[in-house]
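Quick one, tokens below. Sequence please?
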């Protein structure tokens, strides 16, 4: 996103392709998009840091982090394959994620030691390793002004054809608490504004962030409350998005992925989030003040997808 003008233009696309298609008129859809908050999000962009190539170009790393990577043995792809520091926090079919305490803070090292056939088929046109794809997603979202984990390094094996089998990604820890656990303890009210205002502040920030994400053409595709980390902030908190391997950017956006993101949020919200809170969230996302036919259509789709998500059993932990 280069300016609010660009964001608003994309919001028009979102409205025409999504909102207008569910019963509202084109004029209503454009009016909804035009109500998006007029803020210049360039102020939130993180300046890019200089990078260097290591291990004959197999690794891209932040220039300031090269010595740290050498200490961990992550300055070569072979070293990454043998990595065994810290503790494993998640393990799936073809990847393992380590949490590593270092002299400069906590790092997360996600190592891929294989690629599922579905991934290979989906990326046959542009063979990119899962780690490299997540690195690129983080960089694109940072350029658009979203709060993301700081990327440290990415590496993938050289392979002339097909998706590289081995790859790894290193990011810095986002110090905070997942949104679901954060809200499960009660809605934050640091300025003693009362329950209603406290709920409104959180809903406005989170729904606005997701709307801007979608208006920029992105969808997360794994947007559960646990993948938003709330960091300390004078307002109430500042949410960061994590687990960005499945993020995509398309123009115009696909409505079903917008619905899936919203449904993932709805299905993973803790019990402290009431049905009224969820309705306010959706109306804020749609920039609406009442439940009109367009909003009702979105609500039906989101609730239907949310029920499917709740019955889904993940293949891997």
């Amino acid at each position: 996103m280069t300016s609010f003008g660009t964001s608003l233009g994309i919001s028009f696309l979102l409205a025409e392709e999504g909102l207008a298609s569910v019963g509202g008129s084109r004029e209503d859809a454009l009016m909804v998009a035009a109500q998006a908050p007029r803020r210049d999000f360039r102020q939130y962009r993180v300046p890019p840091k200089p990078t260097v190539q290591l291990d004959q170009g197999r690794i891209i790393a932040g220039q300031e982090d090269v010595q740290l990577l050498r200490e961990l043995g992550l300055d070569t792809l072979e070293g990454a394959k043998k990595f065994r520091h810290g503790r494993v926090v998640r393990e799936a079919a073809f990847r393992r994620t380590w949490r590593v305490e270092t002299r400069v803070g906590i790092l997360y090292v996600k190592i891929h030691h294989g690629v599922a056939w579905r991934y290979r088929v989906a990326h046959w046109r542009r063979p990119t390793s899962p780690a490299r794809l997540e690195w690129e997603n983080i960089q694109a979202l940072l350029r658009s002004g979203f709060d993301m984990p700081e990327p440290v390094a990415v590496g993938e094996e050289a392979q002339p054809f097909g998706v590289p089998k081995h790859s790894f990604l290193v990011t810095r820890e986002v110090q905070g608490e997942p949104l679901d656990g954060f809200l499960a303890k009660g809605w934050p009210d640091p300025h003693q504004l009362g329950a209603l205002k406290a709920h409104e502040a959180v809903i406005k920030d989170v729904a606005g962030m997701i709307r801007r994400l979608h208006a920029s053409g992105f969808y997360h595709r794994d947007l559960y409350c646990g993948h938003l980390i709330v960091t300390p902030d004078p307002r109430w908190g500042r949410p960061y998005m994590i687990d960005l391997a499945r993020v995509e950017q398309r123009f115009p956006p696909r409505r079903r992925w917008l619905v899936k993101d919203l449904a993932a949020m709805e299905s993973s919200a803790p019990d402290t989030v009431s049905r009224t809170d969820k309705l306010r969230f959706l109306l804020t996302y749609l920039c609406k003040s009442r439940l009109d036919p367009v909003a009702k259509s979105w609500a039906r789709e989101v609730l239907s997808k949310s029920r499917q998500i709740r019955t889904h059993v993940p293949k891997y932990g």
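Residues 1-37 have pLDDT under 50 and may be disordered. The chain is about 40% helix and 20% strand.
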